[in-house]
Each structure stands twice: as C-alpha cells, then as structure tokens.
C-alpha cells in the first residue's frame, strides 16, 4: 500500500510514523508513507498557500492552485483509489471505513488548515471526506495520523498475531471484552475463573457474552440483530 500525505507541516508526522505499528509496517515493506510539503507547489516567492476568502469574513483559505497542482503531479505518478480530505464535516471515521480503506492499494490524504480549502478542490478533486470526530482541530495532520494508524494496523502481516486486529473493538459492531493478565490475584482483585479454566469453547462464549453486554451498556446503537437474538 502507498499512502501519500499532503501537508504544510511534514515534521509533525516524524514521531508518529517512526515507532510501534506504523514503523513496523514500513520496515516490513507492507506500506510506504510519503509526506509532501504543499509549499513546494506554491508559485508565490514567499511560498504562501492561503489567501483571504471572497466575500470577506475571518480566517484564511487554502488556495486552489497549489493544492490542485500538487494533486495532479502526484496522481500522474500514482493511480489513487481515494483522494481523501480530512474535514470536520466529513463522514465520521469508523471501523468499517478503516476496513474498506485497508484493501485499497493507493491513498492520497490532504490535510486542511485555516478556514479550510477552496470549495473547487472539494467538488472536483476529492473523492472522500472523512472526520475523526465532532470537534475542530488546528489542522488535518493529527487526523491524518489517526486515519493512517486505523488503516495500516489491519493490513495483513502488520500485526504479529493476525487475530489481534479481528478481535478489536468495533469489529463485528461489538466492543472488546474485558482482558486480564498476571497476577491472577492482585490485592484480592481476582481474574474471572473462566479465563483460568483452559476450556477454549467456554472462554470464547464468555468473551462474546461480555462483548455484547459491554456494547449494550456503553454503545447500544452498535448492536446488530444477530447479537440481540443471541442474548
């Protein structure tokens, strides 16, 4: 997979992409993440990429010319399956979307700033808009890190244990069940006996029941009909 990211601040990604799962994925050659500084496509001698909005009002707007020039140049070298703009009014990111994107060979992500991007970019060049939550960030970089991590970690081969990603929260519309590790008794707080029983079938049943119960309590809207029928 190739993930290209257009940003005004490529330095913001250095730590996030240099450790843990994202670093492992790159080291294994399962994903190539490339950062592109939008200012390189500015025709202004000061390398500015924003201007005042037509019609007045506060804030600045990312200009159409450098963004489009950047997208077109990158697209001439890579056939993108999606060109994604991270925006507060995009579709809310969930596990289903992450799963869908994880099987796409090539993604291009645009990080917005200021009051946003010229609408002509959104209507003519962006194929999908995604939000990571109902709040506003200073820019799209942090959202791009979240999206990239959510997508890359479920690419086959990235995680050491393939079943780990499959049992994550939100897979199958269920939250993950409680998990425990040693010691079995900490200050009188004990691990459930079922997890120490060695009965894999009963443990799997307990975990499923716990997932359904936790989802019912915390995120009932996620429960599907199959889960309700098994209650």
Describe the protein's architecture and organization.
This protein has 231 residues and is an alpha/beta fold. The chain folds into 2 domains: 2-152, 3-Layer(aba) Sandwich (Alpha/beta knot), CATH 3.40.1280; 167-229, Trp Operon Repressor, Chain A, CATH 1.10.1270. Helix content is 32%, strand content 18%. The chain is built from 8 helices and 9 strands. It has helices spanning 20-27, 64-75, 95-102, 119-124, 141-152, 162-166, 200-218, 225-229; strands spanning 2-7, 32-37, 50-51, 61-62, 82-92, 106-111, 128-131, 185-186, 189-190. The protein has a 5-stranded parallel sheet with strand order 2-1-6-5-7, sandwiched between helices. A two-stranded antiparallel ribbon has the order 3-4. α3 links the parallel β5 (82-92) and β6. α3 (95-102) packs across α5. It is elongated, with a radius of gyration of 22 Å. The relative contact order is 0.14.
Estimate the helix proportion, in percent. 25-40%
What pattern of helices and strands is seen along the backbone? EHEEEHEHEHEHHEEHH
What is the spatial order of strands in the main beta sheet? 2-1-6-5-7
How many domains? The number is: 2
CATH architecture of the largest domain: 3-Layer(aba) Sandwich
